[in-house]
Amino acid sequence: MRYYYDTIEACVAPEAVMAALRLAGFAAVVRKLELGIFSAYGAHQPAS
């Protein structure tokens, strides 16, 4: 359990992950929360 709490403490905030995806040029960035604890992120790469 110690490892679990250490990894949670060091997690990047969801807003920072989504901002980084947008900054990288992705569109329609979304976050889905699974089981109330797991984040899954999705985005679309705009057509060039």
Helix proportion of residues, in percent? Answer: 25-40%
Rg: 13 Å
The amount of beta strand, in percent, is: 25-35%
- Compute the average pLDDT: 90
What separation lies between the terminal Cα atoms? 46 Å
* Form type: elongated
Low-confidence segments, given as residue ranges, are none
Structural class by helix and strand composition = alpha+beta
Structural description of this entry:
The chain is α+β, with helices and mostly antiparallel strands and 48 residues long. It has helices spanning 2-9, 14-23, and strands spanning 27-34, 38-44. It has a two-stranded antiparallel sheet. β1 and β2 form a beta hairpin. The mean pLDDT is 90.
